[in-house]
Amino acid sequence: MSSADNTKLQFEIIARDFIRAGDAAATIKRYLGQHGFDPELVRRAAVAAYEAEMNIVIHSRGGMLTALIEPDAILITAVDVGPGIPDIPLAMTEGFSTADEEARRMGFGAGMGLPNMKKCSDKFEISSQRGTGTMVRMTLNRHK
Ligand SMILES: Nc1ncnc2c1ncn2[C@@H]1O[C@H](COP(=O)(O)OP(=O)(O)OP(=O)(O)O)[C@@H](O)[C@H]1O
Ligand SMILES: [Mg+2]
Fold first, then answer.
1. What's the CA-to-centroid distance between 5 and ligand 1, angstroms?
2. 44, 50, 71, 134 — which has fewest CB within 10 A?
């Protein structure tokens, strides 16, 4: 056990707010770094959280990002209200993106976020309902 165990870090993510976008993931990364987590695990958690946060900002109408630190794993959950993803296998394909012009001008829209989240996770779950919203749940094991 460590002092970080069973900590819940939760953030409201505002759609289209490109000023604060990334702050939640940065806070999660800083917390893990300051609590002595393995740097490689911190890196994976930071990438997974950042990509999930940006997808809420860019593709949804707003949502929540949560990091739950358990003794054996870090659970990162992104839940949003929005259009949902009509074709999940297509959305998971590297290079597929529906990002709009504004997001692309800021460097987003490579279509790499979801594939990267999956790569960074030991377990990756995504569910979505058209016209309602999307949930992504990622489990990162703390011990190999
Ligand atoms: N939360 C979401 N709500 C609705 N659609 C989403 C959501 N997340 C992803 N998508 C859809 O899946 C596509 C692929 O997402 P992914 O994160 O891989 O790429 P991207 O966000 O378009 O670009 P990048 O992440 O490389 O900046 C998006 O373009 C969008 O169509
Ligand atoms: Mg993305």
1. 31
2. 71
